Amino acid sequence: MDIEKIGKTQLELSSKFWRKREQSPLAYTNEDTVLYMALVYEFGRNNCNNPVKLSDRHLDNLTSLGTIPISQSRNNLKNNNLISFKESDGGIEYTICLGH
């Protein structure tokens, strides 16, 4: 995928998140926002291919959230249908939900 399409996809995902947050501001914490934006960034680095395999350590280095807030936010993002995930060897496989 070329850089222009990756950027457009990342922008669409970010806009989708901000619309959802605007509609339900109490449904998302600041940690949820930081984690989701980090996942969108990594999704783009993966040429917008699902799933993206990441460790909590990598996400902590990227976001400075800590592993407990990452776990809590991961579950909240899943409950709000923004991502799905499953544990695997060496990390967690994240799938960014692309539907609107």
Q: Describe it for me?
A:
The protein has 100 residues and is of the alpha+beta class. The chain has one domain (3-96): Winged helix-like DNA-binding domain superfamily/Winged helix DNA-binding domain (Arc Repressor Mutant, subunit A). It contains four helices and three strands. The protein has helices spanning 3-23, 30-45, 56-63, 67-79; strands at 52-54, 83-88, 91-96. It has a three-stranded antiparallel beta sheet. Helix 1 packs antiparallel against helix 2 (30-45) and helix 2 packs across helix 4. The longest helix is centred in the N-terminal third of the chain and has 21 residues, at 3-23. The protein is globular, with a radius of gyration of 13 Å. The model has no long low-confidence stretch (mean pLDDT 92).
For this entry, give a set of tags.
100 residues, alpha+beta, 15% strand, globular
Q: Can you lay out the helices and strands and say which pair or pack?
A:
Blueprint: H1 3-23, H2 30-45, E1 52-54, H3 56-63, H4 67-79, E2 83-88, E3 91-96
Antiparallel strand pairs: 1-3, 2-3
